From TrEMBL:
UniProt cross-references to CDD domains, sorted A to Z: FBPase
Lineage of source species: Bacteria, Pseudomonadati, Pseudomonadota, Betaproteobacteria, Burkholderiales
Organism field: Massilia terrae
Cofactor binding remark: Binds 2 magnesium ions per subunit.
Protein name from the UniProt record: Fructose-1,6-bisphosphatase class 1
Pathway stated in the Swiss-Prot or TrEMBL entry: Carbohydrate biosynthesis
Broad class of the protein's primary localization: cytoplasm
GO molecular function, one term: fructose 1,6-bisphosphate 1-phosphatase activity
Domain Fructose-1-6-bisphosphatase class I N-terminal: 5-193
Domain Fructose-1-6-bisphosphatase class 1 C-terminal: 198-331
Cofactor(s) for this UniProt protein: Mg(2+)
Cellular compartment(s): Cytoplasm
Length: 333
């Protein structure tokens, strides 16, 4: 079988469509290279002094793991000098990271969750990196936070790397979803799945059940009905999976269907959910929609939400179209 590298794939995309500019191609390759470096660190584990806590707190109020900080640094360093970016923003940084003025400024904005699934780092379970690319508004000088507050529909590319038994890169530039596997010996990304599609129906759901008592009634109803199985209103038995790394849960859904939920809930004070719109919900929603699935916040399409702040949190329901439709309908009843 002829091997197609990420570079070859991107060059061919660039020839075919005007959407993929040379600058965007460079951006994607640089992000992919950074993910390769992160993957290498992840693989070293205790031997690389990358496990455990960094004893600092991020803007989310979470204690940072060493690998959260290391991955953030790797992505910043890799993307600073190429001239393809106007600024970056990350889960691990309070505000945006402008490009230092010793480097030229490009026209794209990059956002990332440098290390997704932090609670799984120290137990050797799959983790990942999520990224989202926007175009900087025209005629803008030094970008501000405001420049990033564009709806998900404005994304020109989105993707994630999953560091599991294999390291994979899943990518969309608005023209379907493709998956690349890292050839560790050669150090190159090889196209291994073309045009991934999420089945419209599923018998599998993913939610953190330990929060059940806090859920809003529509989510209670939806999950209760699934749990009733064959003899309940849904007329079939459902299976449950929860990895606690969004990348790994979404990757499973891309491969065999399912619905992933991180709802808002009634905790005191009421929680808007845990996941962040700009670097978790939006990129995953773009990937899922490009693969024929759906992604809502329980009411409307995630990609249509007008962001109000960089670290905004949103409820997330995504995956197999028909299931996302049911739980979204329940929210409206
Ligand atoms: P992060 O590690 O980037 O902070 O994100 C963790 C997120 C997401 O990956 C996962 O789906 C969810 O948190 C798990 O939450 P619970 O701890 O409630 O299971
Ligand atoms: Mn975190
Ligand atoms: Mn995350
Ligand atoms: Mn993270």
């Amino acid at each position: 079988m002829k091997r197609i590298s990420l570079t070859q794939y991107l060059v061919e995309q660039q020839r075919q469509s005007n959407a993929l500019t040379a600058e965007l191609r460079l951006l994607i390759e640089v992000v992919a290279r950074a993910c390769k470096t992160i993957s290498h660190s992840v693989g070293k584990g205790a031997l690389g002094d990358i496990l455990g806590s960094a004893d600092t707190e991020n803007i989310q109020g979470e204690v940072q793991k060493k690998l959260d900080v290391i991955s953030n640094e790797i992505l910043l360093e890799a993307n600073e000098w190429g001239g393809h970016l106007a600024a970056m923003a990350s889960e691990e940084m309070e505000t945006i990271h402008p490009i230092p003025n010793r480097y030229p400024m490009g026209e794209y904005l990059l956002m990332f969750d440098p290390l997704d699934g932090s609670s799984n780092i120290d137990v050797n379970v799959s983790i990942g990196t999520i990224f989202s690319v926007l175009k900087a508004p025209e005629g803008m000088g030094q970008p501000t936070e405001q420049a990033f507050l564009q709806p998900g529909t404005a994304q020109v590319a989105a993707g994630y790397a999953v560091y599991g038994p294999q390291t994979m890169l899943v990518l969309t530039t608005g023209n379907g979803v493709n998956c690349f596997t890292l050839d560790r010996e050669m150090g190159s990304w090889v196209l291994t799945q073309r045009d991934m599609k999420i089945p419209e129906d599923t018998k599998e759901f993913a939610i953190n059940m330990s929060n059940k008592r806090h859920w809003h009634p529509p989510v209670q109803r939806y999950v209760d009905e699934m749990l009733e199985g064959k003899t309940g209103p849904r007329g079939k038995d459902f299976n449950m999976r929860w990895i606690a790394s969004m990348v790994a849960d979404v990757h499973r859904i891309l491969n065999r269907g399912g619905i992933f939920m991180y709802p808002a809930d009634l905790r005191d004070p009421a929680s808007p959910g845990k996941l962040r719109l700009m670097y978790e919900a939006n990129p995953m929603a773009m990937i899922v929609e490009q693969a024929g699935g759906a992604a809502t916040d329980g009411h409307g399409r995630i990609l249509d939400i007008p962001p109000t702040k960089l670290h905004q949190r949103v409820p997330v329901f995504l995956g197999s179209k028909n299931e996302v439709e049911v739980v979204t309908r329940y929210h409206g009843e």
